[in-house]
């Protein structure tokens, strides 16, 4: 029986002598010339993208061993497919089946993030609340006057008070509610809507206690009931405005944000172009939210790309639209 090393030597003789004569530079140039580049396909995306096959260079196929054992190398999938596939998987995780226990927990966490974005649009603080014995300034109506930033206070001239914060937060919660109404099922919409108003109630009660000194739970509950009634009125008023036109929507904004007053906080006659800017803002945000999927709402609300503001951000386009400029 011939020794095993005899077959090893024979195999080495069949393959390596011919392959060793190939110049390294020629092999590298051949591989470089036949290397495939992964590009984004213009065809509609499919969740399971096929792996592309990279052929073995023809220079290497001259080897007798390569002719007997042809091989193809499977290229790794394109990074764009991996990102889209991960995004689709994330969407399936974030948006579970309606009515399940998982949806309740997901809705609670998601609406908490959404409410934080709504609340931050007209956030305010009262520095005197943390100072012992300090006097909190008041408005003419007797409300605690705080300190706030943003175009709602600086451009529109609204007062940084609890009532202003609650109404601006209600406005943004309403815009999200309009978007959430197109969820796959009515039960899902009810779950998200309920958690959204619950987050508002918890935050409002915290502000009453910490910033405004309402230590009595009975008084806080009374105010929370009034706020819930206001929320129901906001839904009805803004729904009517979206359906009947900008004049009706502007009247609803005037009643809620400016408290149906014909004068501004400075005592001068109200500038009605400010109300028109809020109408344009609501129309723009409603349109942009309709183009965002439910799973991407959290990421898109505050994301600013280049010169384009975030969905809930200040836009010069709204101001130019009111002034009649393009």
From TrEMBL:
Pfam families the record matches: Ubiq_cyt_C_chap
Domain of life: Eukaryota
GO biological process, alphabetically ordered: mitochondrial respiratory chain complex III assembly
Domain Ubiquinol-cytochrome c chaperone: 154-298
GO cellular component: mitochondrion
Similarity comment: Belongs to the CBP3 family.
Protein name: Ubiquinol-cytochrome C chaperone-domain-containing protein
Source species taxonomy: Eukaryota, Fungi, Dikarya, Ascomycota, Pezizomycotina
């Amino acid at each position: 029986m011939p020794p095993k090393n005899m077959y090893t030597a024979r195999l080495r003789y069949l393959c390596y002598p011919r392959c060793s004569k190939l110049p390294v530079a020629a092999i590298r140039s051949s591989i470089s010339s036949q290397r495939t580049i992964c590009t984004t396909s213009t065809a509609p995306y499919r969740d399971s993208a096929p792996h592309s096959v990279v052929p073995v260079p023809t220079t290497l196929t001259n080897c007798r061993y390569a002719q007997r054992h042809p091989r193809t190398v499977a290229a790794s999938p394109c990074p764009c497919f991996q990102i889209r596939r991960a995004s689709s998987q994330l969407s399936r995780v974030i948006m579970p089946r309606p009515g399940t226990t998982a949806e309740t927990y997901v809705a609670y966490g998601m609406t908490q993030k959404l409410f934080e974005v709504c609340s931050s649009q007209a956030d305010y603080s009262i520095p005197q609340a943390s100072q012992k014995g300090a006097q909190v300034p008041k408005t003419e109506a007797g409300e605690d006057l705080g300190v706030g930033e943003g175009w709602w206070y600086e451009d529109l001239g609204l007062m940084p008070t609890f009532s202003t914060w609650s109404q601006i937060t209600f406005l943004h919660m309403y815009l999200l509610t309009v978007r959430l109404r197109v969820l796959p099922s009515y039960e899902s919409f009810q779950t998200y809507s309920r958690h959204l108003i619950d987050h508002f109630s918890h935050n409002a009660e915290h502000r009453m206690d910490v910033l405004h000194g309402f230590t009595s739970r009975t008084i806080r509950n009374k105010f929370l009931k009034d706020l819930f009634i206001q929320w129901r009125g906001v839904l009805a008023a803004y729904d009517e405005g979206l359906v009947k036109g900008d004049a009706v929507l502007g009247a609803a904004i005037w009643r809620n944000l400016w408290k149906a007053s014909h004068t501004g906080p400075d005592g001068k006659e109200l500038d009605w172009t400010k109300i028109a800017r809020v109408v344009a803002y609501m129309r723009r945000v409603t349109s942009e939210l309709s183009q965002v999927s439910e799973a991407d709402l959290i990421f898109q609300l505050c994301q600013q790309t280049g010169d384009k503001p975030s969905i809930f951000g200040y836009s010069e386009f709204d101001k130019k639209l009111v002034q009649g400029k393009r």
